[in-house]
Amino acid sequence: MHPALQGVITIIVGVGGCVAYFYFSNLFLDKVLYPARGPNAGRNINRANLIRPWLFLAPAVLALGLYLAYPVVETLRLSLTNRLPGGGYEWAGLENYSQMVADPKFGEALFNNMLWLFVVPALSTAFGLLAAQLTDRIKWGAVAKSIIFMPMAISFVGAAVIWKLVYDYRAAGEEQIGVLNAIVVSLGGEPTAWLTVPFWNNFFLMAVLIWIQTGFAMVILSAALRGIPEETVEAAIVDGANPFQIFFKIKVPQIMGTIVVVWTTITIVVLKIFDIVFAMTNGQWETQVLANYMYDKLFRANDWGVGSASAMVIMLLVTPILVWNVYNARKEMR
User: Fold this and answer.
1) Is residue 73 part of a domain?
2) Under a CB-based contact definition with an 8 Å cutoff, are residues 258 and 128 in contact?
3) For the domain that residue 227 is a member of, what is the CATH number?
4) pLDDT at position 125, please?
5) Which of 327, 324, 263 lies closest to 129, judged by CA?
6) How many domains does the chain have?
7) pTM for this structure?
8) Nearest CA-CA partner of 271 in 313, 324, 211, 219
9) Does a structural domain hold residue 134?
10) What is the per-residue DSSP string for 202-241?
11) In this model, does residue 210 exceed pLDDT 90?
């Protein structure tokens, strides 16, 4: 069957299923369970109205339970058990966590994730804010925004392949197909295997995510900048403020809530980073991160206990930032 036809059928079945569910559930509620007739009609109507909202929430609650709550509980269970060779599980307690903490690769992954955490959200937000401010002041700003936002349309793996070609290395004397090494050689330098240079190769990987997330930050912050009342800017100009003072003392404080939301959103992306590292270095040359470490343990070493323990660590790191992000978003809405 053609993929387009499959998509259409899926939409029709999905929408039709939802409509049928709501129609028949309300029909059952109003006609069978609590019929609006007889001496108890008023009481039945009130009871039906109390239950009706839960009918609308039930599919969402079921989906969240099946695809979110259950995997979390199951992952926690797996992190506290060991799989037996013949099948089944045995209780291990915190043994998997102790084994994970003692693994040097986990320490490397945790350090690299913290490094990504400090660099990527800050630079992505800063570049996005700078791009938002500059593109709003030029005639061809819409075109510039489209170009800057374009990497957001590329998957992380696609972006990793593009940047792997940028960092590509050939031995000295050979023609360099990597853009960075071609520039270095044209300036009289020696080609370098950039992705194998310890510590610094992490920053070369970070450049890919910054390149992608800058467009996201720019779009959100550009909308926030446009929402600043013109009166405050005009008053600052009348008082003799220069462009830098207007930007840092007038505009930035007024959109600080949006900046925090953008920063925390990118932070969550960073904590779950996997695709770029997997496609470019596979965690070699001291570039391991938590998500890639989890993948290695689960699907390469077949160690479900330690792999699940590392997944729980990622979830614990993401949860406080996610809660803070939701809190700030609701606060700004109020």
Assistant:
1) no
2) no
3) 1.10.3720.10
4) 92
5) 263
6) 2
7) 0.79
8) 313
9) yes
10) HHHHHHHHHHHHHHHHHHHHHHHHHTS-HHHHHHHHHTT-
11) yes
Residue-averaged pLDDT of the chain: 83
What stretches of the chain adopt beta strand conformation (E)? 81-83, 89-91
Q: Assign 144 a pLDDT band (cuts: 50, 70, 90).
A: confident
The DSSP bridge partners found for residue 72 are none
What tokens were used for 50? 């109390």
Rg (CA), the chain: 27
pLDDT one-digit tens code per residue, 111-131: 999 999 899 999 999 999 888
- Side chain identity at 78, as an amino acid letter? L
Q: Which DSSP symbol is given to 241?
A: -
Mark whether 217 and 277 lie in a shared domain.
yes
Q: What is the pLDDT of residue 1?
A: 61
H helical segments located in 103-199: 104-135, 141-149, 156-166, 179-186
Residue 3's pLDDT is 65
176 in a structural domain: yes
- Please give the torsion angle defined by the CA atoms of residues 317, 320, 323 and 328, in that order, rounded to the nearest 10 degrees: -110
Distance CA 126, CA 262 (A): 10
Residue 165 corresponds to which amino acid?
Answer: L
Residue type, 314: I
- 119 and 258 in a single domain? The answer is yes
Indicate whether 220 and 154 sit together in one domain.
Answer: yes
